[in-house]
Design brief:
By secondary structure, this protein is an alpha/beta fold. Helix content is 40%, strand content 17%. It folds into two domains: 170 residues, Rossmann fold (3-Layer(aba) Sandwich), CATH 3.40.50.1100; 98 residues, 3-Layer(aba) Sandwich (Rossmann fold), CATH 3.40.50. Helix 7 packs across helix 8.
């Protein structure tokens, strides 16, 4: 079977996500902003683009199980595509460090989820050791098949805009996605500025999807910086939280906190021209981050509702 950067028989319809003009934020920030809503992929995050390709190719090579370390989204995606392919999925996560919704997705798809008393980096190290076992395939972004699938987002952005953007922005956790985006730009023959936002408090940030102390793709990211292709913007927890809330309240794009890092980086950097920000995961992936304590309880009368509205 000749497999390309898009899965065929295993596909759940990943890709072809909307590119939404962010008119209110564009006016406030002083540049033309478009939001690539990757949370509308099948499991709710950008991971599906690469996971579909990685799992399909793992099957073609005779794998009987896929393994991954995850802060949540990779686990959900790996478990889902493994289930569709009829493979066993083994997921290692840092204990207490992943959002409930993401763990639920992995369990629902039948993955064996093992929590590690340690960090994501510990989990990834153990996964790399596991792939020495017969028939086990690693489906973290260290697998080049993941990068091959994820780079397709670039072609979609260019097609939807009708031209290459001046800048593409996204979060920086492990660095796999920016590596994929850079590869996609090279393949498409375009050279936009690349901007990533990372948490200043990497190992403990409330933005759990980028809670990674030691990025697996640090070397590739450093090479992009040295080549003048990439700018890294470090964000405080307040800067991340503020932009995450603004995306929902001003543009109606509810994403998980980490997904706002690209837009927050553009705002802090002071971007110019046309910017495409990759919003990597849906807000329902980490609904626990939302403070719902402000909800008001009133009697079932019009007078009570009107009083609450005053």
């Amino acid at each position: 079977m000749g497999l390309t950067a898009t899965a065929t028989w295993l596909s759940l319809g990943e890709g072809s996500t909307p590119l939404v003009p962010a008119s209110r934020l564009s006016e406030a920030l002083g540049f033309e902003l478009h939001l690539k809503c990757e949370g509308l992929n099948p499991t709710g995050s950008f991971k599906d683009r690469g996971m579909a390709v990685a799992v399909e190719r793992a099957v073609s090579r005779g794998a009987r199980a896929v393994v991954c370390a995850s802060t949540g989204n990779t686990a959900a995606s790996a478990a889902t595509y493994a289930a569709r392919a009829g493979l066993r999925a083994i997921v290692l996560t840092p204990a207490g460090a992943t959002a409930d919704a993401k763990r639920a997705q992995a369990h629902a798809a039948g993955a064996q989820v093992i929590e590690i008393r340690g960090t994501f980096d510990d989990a990834l190290r153990l996964c790399q050791q596991l792939v020495g076992e017969d028939g086990f395939a690693l489906v973290n972004s260290l697998n080049p098949d993941r990068i091959d699938g994820q780079k397709t987002v670039v072609g979609e952005i260019v097609e939807q805009l009708g031209e290459a953007p001046d800048v593409i922005a996204l979060p920086y956790g492990g660095g796999g996605n920016v590596t994929a985006v850079a590869a996609g730009c090279t393949e498409a023959g375009i050279d936009p500025a690349l901007v990533v936002g990372q948490a200043a408090e990497r190992p403990t940030t409330f933005a759990s999807a980028i809670r990674i102390g030691d990025p697996a793709h640090r070397a590739e990211v450093d090479e992009l910086v040295a080549a003048g292709r990439l700018t890294i913007v470090t964000l405080t927890e307040d800067e991340l939280r503020e932009m995450w809330q603004r995306l929902s309240r001003e543009e109606g794009v509810f994403c998980e906190p980490a997904s706002a890092a690209g837009v927050a980086a553009l705002a802090k950097l002071g971007a110019q021209g046309v910017a495409a920000a990759i919003v990597t995961g849906h807000g329902l992936k980490d609904s626990g981050a939302v403070d719902v304590s402000a909800a008001q309880l009133v009697e079932p009368t019009l007078e009570a509702v009107l009083e609450a509205l005053r």
